[in-house]
């Protein structure tokens, strides 16, 4: 497999980590296209743990992002500090509230958010090297804070999140669940995924398009 993509995870579970279906669909499509991949996650504590059955905070539980992400990667995962943009052709960041709670504080701070340094460093390195970057679900909120103003992204139609993107200088584009938004100048591809999806097949349509476009951009 000549092409190699880094996939950055934020735990395991939509409400406090990486969205499981988004991650699995991403890895599936990469494999279908014959693209190699490696998963990465930071070795830090989660912001908090959610009981996904009850959608309630579990105050007596604590979990580690790298350990939880290893569940999704079947143990084949590296610490995020080991990610070297020079070794990969592109990077993809699935959504899930781990992005907004642990990899950043967007869930609390909104447009005043800060991004985890050990995430920002590698993503900026990919951007500076003009290597394609894919983000889905809530993850596109990171773009204006990381890469500056005027970059087109989508989270679908959510007014609060799209408003925060605009407040940070981003260009939000409305988008159907089965489609993508591409900023060709900055080589950034985004899709709403479970910001809009009600079924896994709906999420798959946009995610597969995102991975396909990342594949095309790696050729340019």
Automatic annotation (TrEMBL):
Keyword rRNA processing appears in the UniProt entry: no
Keyword Acyltransferase: no
Catalytic activity annotation: glyoxal + H2O = glycolate + H(+)
Annotated signal peptide: none
Gene3D superfamilies: 3.40.50.880
CDD domains: GATase1_ES1 (cd03133)
GO molecular function terms noted in the UniProt entry: lyase activity
Keyword set, alphabetical order: Lyase
InterPro entries noted in UniProt: Class_I_gatase-like, ElbB
Function noted in UniProt: Displays glyoxalase activity, catalyzing the conversion of glyoxal to glycolate.
UniProt similarity note: Belongs to the peptidase C56 family.
Protein name stated in the entry: Glyoxalase
Species the sequence originates in: Halomonas salipaludis
